[in-house]
Specification:
Blueprint lengths: L4 E6 L2 H11 L1 H19 L3 H11 L3 H22 L3 H8 L1 H7 L10 E7 L4 E11 L6 E7 L7 E6 L6 E4 L4 E6 L12 H9 L4 H10 L6 E6 L4 E6 L4 E6 L5 E5 L19 H16 L9 H8 L13 H7 L3 E11 L4 E5 L9 E4 L2 H8 L1
Parallel strand pairs: 1-4
Antiparallel strand pairs: 2-3, 2-11, 3-12, 4-5, 5-6, 6-7, 7-8, 8-9, 9-10, 12-13, 13-14
């Protein structure tokens, strides 16, 4: 059964990356091996050829340099620490972008996310299932980032060798994401992992939402962003950032899966509401809507956990256990489940898989919380 690998990262961006790569070297190198094998199986080309073409035919680095330049140093540090070529480690950060570049959309992409704000109580949560292809099982990783100031400390869910998938900070800011493959993509935009980490570098949900609205986006993606004051649900794509929900200063509950609810910036691929991909995302959304009330109860960890463990539709469940995926012959599963509890003492609740086979463990975020837990 999967477990989390943990990397403590601190110092400069290059030092953080090097600590990640060195402490998890064997895991990162095995992820690299499996990723290359998956690329070759998907494209019928040598992995080196695919990686070289991918980097040559896209132009993400200028946007990264303009918006999150320090994260290039972190990627370079991962490559150095793990003893891997920089170009390959860089390309591995572009997970969502690789999906549309290789046109590997025959299988449905997943992730069910939610957010709830109880402004009167000064608390919120954002949460999700992080659903990925099955070969990623075993690479579930927690980055414990120590920032220059205590409020910049963060807990980040990732796959070993990547800078991040989603996360939360000691300041009580949380970010969750889910793919919107129907929306337009751009070969010169900011890749999803860098948008997420850039948002987590902000002080508040309002600032993070401003960052997401400002930057150019490489991929269609939904961002749920919250703190104890504000909650945002933003659908980003190549040509627009559509606001699905803006809960500044009031109570709000949002649910999202893998189809656009507000944006109409569709990509060139045919959009077929009758396809399995669309039926899967619509039915998961229905499950979340049924299980999350439009009141402060949805801002409770227990309520969110039940919603993310749901298997109301036996063919299109919210929680996708690895064993179920194997039995059904599906190529995707719930890689991890997270509930970011955003209170004055924020707590990351995390499980390395579906909540039908794993339990959430509470991880205090920040130095004061970590000391209290240790005592």
């Amino acid at each position: 059964m999967a477990r989390f690998h943990v990397a403590e990262i601190t110092g400069t961006a290059r030092e953080r990356g090097r600590a990640h790569g060195e402490s998890l070297r064997d895991v990162v190198r095995e992820r690299e091996r499996r990723w290359r094998a998956a690329l070759e199986a998907k494209t019928k080309l040598p992995a080196d050829t695919v990686i070289a073409r991918f980097l040559a035919e896209t132009d993400f680095v200028p946007a990264i340099r303009r918006q999150t330049h320090y994260l290039l140093d972190e990627v370079r540090g991962i490559a150095e620490g793990a003893g891997l070529p920089f170009d390959a480690v860089l390309a591995a950060q572009f997970m969502d972008e690789e999906w549309w570049y290789t046109d590997a959309l025959a299988d449905p992409h997943h992730c069910s996310s939610l957010g709830a704000l109880d402004a009167g109580a000064g608390r919120a949560l954002v949460a999700q299932t992080m659903d990925l292809v099955t070969w990623t099982d075993g690479f579930q990783t927690i980055l414990r980032l120590r920032g220059a100031r205590p409020e910049q400390d963060a807990v980040i869910l990732t796959m070993a060798g990547m800078i991040g998938l989603c996360g939360m900070t000691a300041a009580g800011l949380g970010v969750c994401v889910n793919t919107l493959a129907q929306l337009a993509s751009r070969r010169e935009g900011l890749p999803v992992a860098f948008v997420t980490r850039g948002a987590l570098a902000c002080a508040t949900a309002a600032e993070a939402a401003g960052f997401v609205r400002r930057v150019p986006h490489a991929s269609g993606q939904n961002y749920v962003i919250g703190d104890g004051r504000d909650l945002y649900d933003l659908e980003a794509s190549a040509n627009a950032v559509a606001t699905h929900a803006d809960g500044a200063g009031r109570g709000l509950v949002v649910r999202h899966t893998n189809h656009p609810l507000t944006s109409r910036d569709l990509g060139p691929a045919p959009y077929d509401p009758a396809s399995e991909r669309e039926r899967h995302t619509v039915r998961r959304l229905g499950s979340l809507v049924a299980r999350l009330p439009d009141n402060g109860d949805s801002a409770k960890v227990a309520t969110a956990s039940v919603a993310l463990a749901a298997q109301d539709d036996p063919e299109f469940p919210v929680a996708i256990p690895a064993a179920w995926a194997e039995a059904k012959g599906r190529s995707y599963f719930t890689f991890a489940t997270v509930v970011w509890e955003l209170t004055p003492t924020p707590i990351a609740h995390m499980a390395p898989g579906a909540l039908t086979e794993h339990r959430l463990d509470a991880l205090p975020v920040g130095r004061a919380g970590a000391r209290a837990a240790a005592e």
